[in-house]
From TrEMBL:
This is Amino acid dehydrogenase. InterPro entries: Aminoacid_DH-like_N_sf, Glu/Leu/Phe/Val/Trp_DH, Glu/Leu/Phe/Val/Trp_DH_C, Glu/Leu/Phe/Val/Trp_DH_dimer, Glu/Leu/Phe/Val_DH_AS, Glu/Phe/Leu/Val/Trp_DH_bac/arc, NAD(P)-bd_dom_sf. It comes from Paenibacillus glycinis. Keywords: NAD, Oxidoreductase. The keyword NAD applies. Belongs to the Glu/Leu/Phe/Val dehydrogenases family. The keyword Lipid biosynthesis does not apply. Gene3D superfamilies: Leucine Dehydrogenase, chain A, domain 1, NAD(P)-binding Rossmann-like Domain.
């Protein structure tokens, strides 16, 4: 990957390459945009196959954060930090403190937080070097699984809005929902769906998590590869990115795709078009999974917990707005969401 070309293509403001030999830190901070405010976005730690993969992941995720904040009118931009390394074996206080010093040097242009592979303890280490970090001990997001809870709640509301728009009713009782991924968000989402009277089909590569969900919600489990072909009203990708691709879309037998995973479309244009042609309503990922970002923004602005929940409930109306815009402009839903976000970004 040519980094400059990619920065131009995705309109990335700044990429910071962080290297500190003694702490064993190799990381990238991507600031996609500070047009609407400081760039907000978590810190991911992952065993990337190549250094280029780490940069590509950081810039793409940072861009998603910009669009997510913009479409909801939040006064933040988008950023992301990625640390190259194995989260199970390569963590140390030194490493996170070293990253904290890099973040401090950005003087508030980037605010980090928990993401895939990082925890509250890691954020506490970063906090020793900089105040520009969320999800530290004592914050509402660090208590229990509040971020996952609000993300699941947002996805649930997004499903209701999508069913309302496409099927004529937001009532999910008797609807069948296929949930891929039963981690922090997927499991809580299953609980909300079960309480709403939906039938659940589930899959995860971790058998213990499958068993837990079968027991808790009387869900029907299928093999990870079989979930795509399950006949259902809603398919909910709550595992990894890139899972809507040339191979999987052909198998889908659902009316709606709405789930928490980031960057679900492997190739935004081609795969988004394919879903459209197959008559499947796609809830753009960064709209439907915005619950976590919305409460982070709320916490930074000192908003109360009940008010935070009301803010997350905006996801319902926002998705309807995206769908109506897509219909009016005769464009796919992912593009309609981008258009609305870009309109916010280009406001004087
Ligand atoms: P998690 O790591 O707790 O759960 C992910 C689950 O997916 C794991 O149980 C894993 O075993 C499973 N999985 C991985 N590959 C799979 C496959 N091929 N088939 C089936 N299952 C598979 O993560 P999470 O916090 O629940 O987040 C889920 C997704 O939502 C991620 O993509 C994340 O980036 C996104 N997201 C999460 C939040 C949040 O608040 N946690 C917010 C926004 C977006």
């Amino acid at each position: 990957m040519d980094v400059w070309k990619e920065m131009k293509r995705l309109q990335v403001e700044q990429v910071v390459f962080c290297q500190e030999e003694q702490a064993g830190l190799q990381a990238v901070i991507a600031i996609h945009s500070t047009r609407l405010g400081p760039a907000l976005g978590g810190c991911r730690m992952w065993t990337y196959a190549t250094e280029n993969d780490a940069v590509a992941d950081a810039v793409r995720l940072a861009r998603g954060m910009t669009y997510k904040a913009a479409i909801f009118g939040l006064p933040y931009g988008g950023g992301k930090a990625v640390i190259v390394g194995n989260p199970s074996t390569d963590k140390s206080e030194d490493k996170f403190r070293a990253l904290g010093r890099f973040i401090e040097r950005l003087q508030g242009r980037y605010i980090t937080g928990v993401d895939l592979g990082t925890t509250v303890r890691d954020m506490d280490w970063i906090r020793l070097e900089t105040p520009h970090v969320t999800d530290t001990t004592g914050t509402i997001m660090a208590a229990g699984d509040f971020t996952a809870e609000m993300t699941a709640y947002g996805v649930y509301l997004g499903m209701k809005a999508s069913a309302d728009y496409l099927l004529g009713s937001g009532d999910l009782s008797g609807r069948t929902v296929a949930v891929q991924g039963l981690g922090k968000v997927g499991f809580l989402l299953c609980g909300l769906l079960r309480d709403a009277g939906a039938n659940l089909v589930i899959a995860d590569i971790d058998n213990a998590l499958v068993e837990r969900a079968v027991k808790a919600y009387h869900a029907r489990a299928v093999a990870p590869d079989a979930i795509y072909g399950e006949s259902c009203d809603i398919f909910a990708p709550c595992a990894i990115g890139g899972i809507l691709n040339d191979a999987t879309i052909a198998k889908l037998r659902c009316a709606i795709v709405a789930g928490s995973a980031n960057n679900q479309l492997q190739e935004e244009i081609r795969n988004g078009e394919e879903l459209e042609q197959r008559g499947i309503l796609y809830a753009p990922d960064y709209v439907v999974n915005a619950g976590g970002l919305i409460i982070t923004a709320c916490e930074l602005q000192g908003v109360s917990v009940p008010e935070m929940k009301r803010n997350v409930e905006r996801i319902y109306g926002m998705l309807l707005k995206v769908y109506l815009h897509a219909r009016q402009e005769a464009v796919p839903t992912w593009l309609a969401a981008n258009m609305l976000a870009e309109a916010e970004l280009s406001k004087p």
